[in-house]
């Protein structure tokens, strides 16, 4: 019966989106919902037993225009939107995972828009709650996640059709839950899904079109930061160790909102000696890495993605490469704050919080 309902909704969506329309591009505040069907992705052989059925999700959200429509970056990004959403998911494995719920904020970045059509990328982050996490006696088969409360991330691509005050759409999304290894195990839960969306325009706001200035700040900016994080070193979560990172980055803007970066990381990692049995010493281990990355620059905020290569590393447990996804914000004059997640590909290592200084 559930499959029949799904295909009926899909057929109705195709018919409605193919119908002719005479609509204008919409702005203002919207309320909406998302209905999804997907599955828990077993990104490791040890997780395959956790996939026992389809994951079904229902989501409610509210979105609005970003305050800053008179800014140049706002027009450069085709007028992105901001919002807050709550979703509740039945993972398909009621015994070992249960339900997953999350409250998160997000930004929609339009790719293409016309009088009737809009497609966009959605990025969001917040707090997620997993009903049944790993327990060494009662739920030892859930090797994916070791904590109830986790960081939640959402990535989606949607295409929508406007009908007066309504928008109906489809697309796909991936949601991720992880504690950043604050508690183990921490393989993380990834759920890709097929989405159907419905939105209603509560009110309209007239936005201002900004003429882009061709002048570009071509100066290279230098960031020096000290960041710290905490991670567990055993599945009983009795031992937690600090990781400190000194970061030196050079950043250059090559478009109004885009740029690239590169630099050096020095890690003082107290956790490696406990995590890697092949480590040659029980003392904290120094790691050195070189990295490159890309920036999305939103006024005084920067969202960035980096990939690094260890140049000095006594541990080979996680391979030779590392990655970082995060954000930086200028909080006062040249003082910057940083929050990021360091990973080894899809496996989270730890969250970093830090402060630093920027100069030209």
N/C terminus separation: 63 Å
**Could you give the count of β-strands?**
16
Rg (C-alpha, Å): 22 Å
Strand content: over 45%
Query: How is the CATH topology of the largest domain named?
Result: Porin
The second-level CATH architecture of the largest domain is Beta Barrel
pLDDT average, as an integer?
86
- The number of domains is 2
Classify the secondary structure makeup into a structural class. Answer: mainly beta
| Count, helices | 3
Give the biggest sheet: 8 strands, antiparallel, barrel
Helix percentage range: under 10%
- Please write the CATH class name of the largest domain: Mainly Beta
Low-confidence segments:
1-25
Sum up the overall morphology in one term. flat
Oligomer status: single chain
Looking across the biggest beta sheet, what order are the strands in?
A: 1-2-3-4-5-6-7-8
- Series of secondary-structure elements, N-terminal to C-terminal: HEEHEEEEEEEEEHEEEEE
What does this structure look like?
The chain has 360 residues and is mainly beta. It has two domains: 2-203, Porin; 220-359, Porin, CATH 2.40.160. The chain is 7% helix and 56% strand. It has helices at 2-18, 72-76, 272-275, and strands at residues 29-38, 55-65, 81-90, 99-113, 117-130, 149-163, 166-178, 189-203, 220-232, 240-253, 258-269, 285-298, 301-312, 321-332, 335-344, 347-359. The chain has an eight-stranded antiparallel barrel. The protein has an eight-stranded antiparallel β-barrel with strand order 9-10-11-12-13-14-15-16. A hairpin with a 2-residue loop joins strand 12 (285-298) and strand 13. The chain is flat.
């Amino acid at each position: 019966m559930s499959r029949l309902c799904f295909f009926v909704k899909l057929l109705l969506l195709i018919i409605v989106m193919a119908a002719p329309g005479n609509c204008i591009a919409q702005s203002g505040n919207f309320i909406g919902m998302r209905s999804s069907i997907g599955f828990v992705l077993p990104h490791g052989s040890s997780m395959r037993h956790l996939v026992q059925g389809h994951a079904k999700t229902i989501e409610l959200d509210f979105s609005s225009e970003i305050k800053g429509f008179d800014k140049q970056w706002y027009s450069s990004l085709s007028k992105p939107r901001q919002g807050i959403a709550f979703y509740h998911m039945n993972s398909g494995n009621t015994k070992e995972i249960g339900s997953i719920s999350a409250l998160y904020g997000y930004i929609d970045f339009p790719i293409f828009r016309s009088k009737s059509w809009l497609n966009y990328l959605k990025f969001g982050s917040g707090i997620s709650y997993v009903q049944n996490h790993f327990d060494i006696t009662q739920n030892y088969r859930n090797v994916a996640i070791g904590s109830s409360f986790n960081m939640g991330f959402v990535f989606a691509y949607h295409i929508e059709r406007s009908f007066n005050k309504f928008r109906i759409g489809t697309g796909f999304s991936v949601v991720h839950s992880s504690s950043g290894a604050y508690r183990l195990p921490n393989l993380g839960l990834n759920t890709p899904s097929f989405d159907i969306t419905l939105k209603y325009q509560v009110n309209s706001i007239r936005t201002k079109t900004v003429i882009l200035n061709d002048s570009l700040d071509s100066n290279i900016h230098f960031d020096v930061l000290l960041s710290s994080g905490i991670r567990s070193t055993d599945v009983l979560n009795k031992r937690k160790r600090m990781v400190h990172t000194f970061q030196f980055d050079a950043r250059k803007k090559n478009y109004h909102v885009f740029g690239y970066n590169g630099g050096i990381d020095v890690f003082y990692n107290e956790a490696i000696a406990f995590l890697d049995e092949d480590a040659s010493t029980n003392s904290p281990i120094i790691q050195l890495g070189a990295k490159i990355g890309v920036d999305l620059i939103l006024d005084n905020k920067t969202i960035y993605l980096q990939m690094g290569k260890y140049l000095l590393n006594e541990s080979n447990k996680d391979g030779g490469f590392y990655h970082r996804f995060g954000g930086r914000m200028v909080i006062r004059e040249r003082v910057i704050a940083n929050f990021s997640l360091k990973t080894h590909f899809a496996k989270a290592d730890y969250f970093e919080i830090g402060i630093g200084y920027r100069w030209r």
